[in-house]
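Hey,
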Amino acid sequence: MQAVSCLWERPDRPGPLWGQVLLLLAGLGMSVAGTVIAVLGATTVFVPEDFVFLQTTSTGLHAVNSHLIPLIAHDRAGFAGALLADGLGILLMVLWGFRPGARWLWWTLLGAGLCVCVPAVGIHLLVGYTSFSHLAPVLKRSISLLSRVDFLVLISSQEF
């Protein structure tokens, strides 16, 4: 097994692989976002857009049912854990999965991304929670995924 001094450089290509560096940053960003959401979910639970959408307050929700806010906090914690795990998974693939001919890596990243974006956007549209500032991160991710489809079609027919 050959040791690699810099994980984003390849001996057959000078300089860094910028796509790999950008995916590394995306994995780090997802991991940080998962951590931030976990902290917010365990402390304040809600963001201001939540109350605008629900047209109520934390006190109003507690008056309806005292178990409602802990349930929502539990849901946020699950989402945060999934986001953190996805970010770490991307980091592992980016740091050790890049190899010539590794088309599986790109298809795996696309499939995982679709499993996140389609339900996230779909459920928000279904319930009418369409605040742009709330949906901006997942919309940005969806656009990024769609831009990779052409790339995947291209590399499927060529040696990568």
